[in-house]
């Protein structure tokens, strides 16, 4: 399962980079919020098809409304990411957008791990990890230089 998790993470990284480029162009063509809405509708349609194919029905979806509301934040975060990349890519380029996005993700990931936010296991920030985060931040900042 670890190999599958790594493969899916790599696939997500590749897909995310393609998404940055495509959404930037799409937003430039029809508008940032229009592209966001259409992209979200496409994602909804495909995710429902996958759910039906894998689960043969609604699965645990009806239980979503009975979970704590803070768990719904993933949808809001997805909206934030897609809106930001759709707006940022045409203005600062794909490399800078992706670099800054990844640096922000790494920083927030370290904060989540350090404090055990959202119920995840606490993982300390070692000096080496802190250095890696700082170097990623510097790299993201340098990606703005043309």
Note down, in words, how this protein is organized.
The chain is mostly helical and 146 residues long. It has one domain. Helix content is 76%, strand content 0%. The protein has five helices and no strands. It has helices spanning 2-30, 32-55, 73-92, 94-115, 127-142. Helix 1 (2-30) packs across helix 3, helix 2 crosses helix 3 and helix 4 (94-115) runs antiparallel to helix 5. The longest helix is centred in the first third of the chain and has 29 residues, at 2-30. The chain is globular and about 45 Å long. It starts with a helix and ends with a helix. The model has no long low-confidence stretch (mean pLDDT 93).
Based on CA atoms alone, the radius of gyration comes out at 18 Å
Averaged pLDDT: 93
Shape: globular
* Tally of separate helices: 5
What are the secondary-structure elements, in order, as H or E? Answer: HHHHH
- Could you list the spans in which at least 5 consecutive residues all have pLDDT below 50? none
Quaternary organisation of the protein chains: single chain
Helical fraction: over 70%
Main β-sheet: number of strands, strand sense, barrel status?
Answer: none
Intertermini distance: 41 Å
Strand content: under 5%
Structural class of the secondary structure composition?
A: mainly alpha
The total count of strands amounts to: 0
What's the structural domain tally? 1
Keyword list:
5 helices; mainly alpha; 146 residues
């Amino acid at each position: 399962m670890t190999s599958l998790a790594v493969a899916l993470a790599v696939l997500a990284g590749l897909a995310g980079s393609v998404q940055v480029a495509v959404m930037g162009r799409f937003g430039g063509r029809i508008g940032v919020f229009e592209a966001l809405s259409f992209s979200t509708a496409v994602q909804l349609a495909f995710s429902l098809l996958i759910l039906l194919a894998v689960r043969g029905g609604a699965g645990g979806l009806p239980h979503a409304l009975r979970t704590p509301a803070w768990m719904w934040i993933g949808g809001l975060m997805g909206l934030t990411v897609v809106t930001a990349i759709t707006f940022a890519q045409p203005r600062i380029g794909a490399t800078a957008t992706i670099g800054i996005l990844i640096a922000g993700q790494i920083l927030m990931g370290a904060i989540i791990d350090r404090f055990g936010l959202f119920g995840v296991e606490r993982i300390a920030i070692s000096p080496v990890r802190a250095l890696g985060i700082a170097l990623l931040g510097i790299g993201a900042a340098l990606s703005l230089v043309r």
